[in-house]
Write a structure and sequence with these properties.
Layout (H helix, E strand, L loop, with lengths): L6 H22 L2 H21 L6 H25 L3 H23 L2 H8 L2 H8 L1 H12 L5 H14 L36 H4 L18 H6 L3
């Protein structure tokens, strides 16, 4: 026996779609937002291209899997933010940041990939925890300002951990009131793309984005928010 989706959840989805339409209108009118989406789409294209590369190299397969993880994260984050779940979208972007830092570490010292693959939990937390990865990258690059930590901390405060600052992500303005879930700027659920989602979702390689000529409605906006 099948049951219908509860009415409140159906109504919530309708509200999410309305918020998406409003978000798409804002993107169409703002070249800066269009550039943000263009860069995101280019990163997803790169991850999808890496996924399709045939290899028996187990270390390279790790990079492919992490690229697929990033592709899925970007797709979910975009869907969430267009539907009004800005805080949840930012939380997923923190995951993207962690993954990018790890890939950056591997790029500078490829033997670390094999160590990471075979590490148990204790060894992984000792050598590859987010803080250890950031510290290793800063030491490698000679950075002392801890900008990586500051960015990670920002995402953690605004989206990762319940605290008073996290309420900012549910406000129209920093000093305003937090909106109610359905009627305000917060709304929606996301469908997470499966691994290999580029193929199952019909993801197509796009033409080169840069240099980017933006009009009232850019190419990326047309693909993301079709009329």
């Amino acid at each position: 026996m099948t049951r219908d989706i509860p009415e409140n959840l159906t109504r919530l989805h309708s509200a999410e779609q309305l918020l998406r339409q409003k978000a798409c209108s804002m993107i169409a009118a703002d070249p800066r937002l269009q550039l943000h989406l263009s860069v995101t789409e280019a990163a997803m294209d790169l991850a999808d291209s890496l996924r399709t590369f045939s290899t028996n190299d187990e270390d390279l397969k790790v990079a492919q899997i992490l690229g697929m993880r990033t592709f899925n994260a970007f797709g979910a984050s975009i869907k969430l933010t267009l539907s009004g779940y800005h805080q949840n979208s930012a939380l997923i972007l923190r995951d993207v940041m962690e993954t990018v830092f790890l890939l950056d570490l591997f790029a500078g010292d490829r033997p670390l990939i094999e160590r990471w693959r075979f590490a148990d939990k204790k060894a992984r937390m000792k050598d590859f925890s987010p803080v250890k990865v950031r510290e290793a990258l800063d030491a490698r690059d000679g950075f002392t300002s801890k900008k990586r930590f500051e960015m990670y901390e920002l995402f953690s405060e605004l989206a990762g951990h319940p605290n008073m600052k996290s309420a900012w992500m549910m406000r129209r303005q920093k000093d305003g009131d937090a909106d109610r879930p359905v009627h305000g700027s917060n709304g929606a659920g996301s469908r997470r793309l499966r691994n290999g989602a580029a193929r199952s979702a019909g993801w197509r390689e796009t033409r080169p984005i840069f240099p980017c000529k933006l009009g009232s409605r850019s190419a990326v906006t047309a693909r993301l928010c079709p009329t």
